[in-house]
Amino acid sequence: METILEVKGLSGGYIWNRPIIREIDFSVGPGEMIGLIGLNGAGKSTTIKHILGLLAPHEGSVRILGREAGQSAETYRSSFAYVPESPELYEELTIREHLRMTSMAYGLDSAQFEQKSAVLAGQFDMTNKLDSFPQTLSKGMRQKVMIMNAFLTEPPLYIIDEPFLGLDPLGIRSLLELMVERKRQGASFLISSHILSTLETYCDRFIVLHRGRIAAQGALSNLRSQVPGSGPESTLDELFYTLVKGGAS
């Protein structure tokens, strides 16, 4: 079975020879939902920026469907959709125009755009906001626009960074239902979030970053076997606390 995302021996950062992350190794298979967790400054955002192709590795490699970003940037970037932690929108474009621009970039025809955008707007209670400009929206609504843009397309991989920040309960539920639906269709997910209870419920495996290295990874049962003193009922939150507070490093 083909690996969707492969991160191998990855070390890197913002200044050459001063890595923030070191020797990061993990993969994401088809239809897997992987939780990337760690304290602030653990290296989550740096790892994601390497996957997005915004940073070049000091050592190691990142491949999506066997390709590296430098081999074919357009093909590489079309293989994933990204939801950033902070909404980034063009103030001069309406929400509908943002969605249309995304549809054009990913080659959707007019019928596909109209159908998909209408469904997403309904799911996120944004139908009456489609012709609004970003400056008139709350932060939560702006985050919904980023999510709608990402899910307008159907790539093999979704990379989602702190998706629940600012969302109302309806938005959170709509996002989780959409993720489950796309996962059922075979899409893969890499999700970074501090809401560990939600990740525990929805993710298949977890990667715990601590001080730029992987402290532990695997399914919940695997993490329990890696953390001294844990039991069969230990939660992800409890395991994480032990790992970053004097446990594995």
From TrEMBL:
Position of the signal peptide: none
Keywords assigned by UniProt, alphabetized: ATP-binding, Nucleotide-binding, Transport
Gene3D superfamilies recorded: P-loop containing nucleotide triphosphate hydrolases
Record carries keyword Nucleotidyltransferase: no
Record GO terms (molecular function): ATP binding
Domain ABC transporter intervals: 5-236
Transmembrane feature ranges: none
Protein name: ABC transporter ATP-binding protein
Organism listed in the record: Paenibacillus hodogayensis
Phylogenetic classification of the source organism: Bacteria, Bacillati, Bacillota, Bacilli, Bacillales
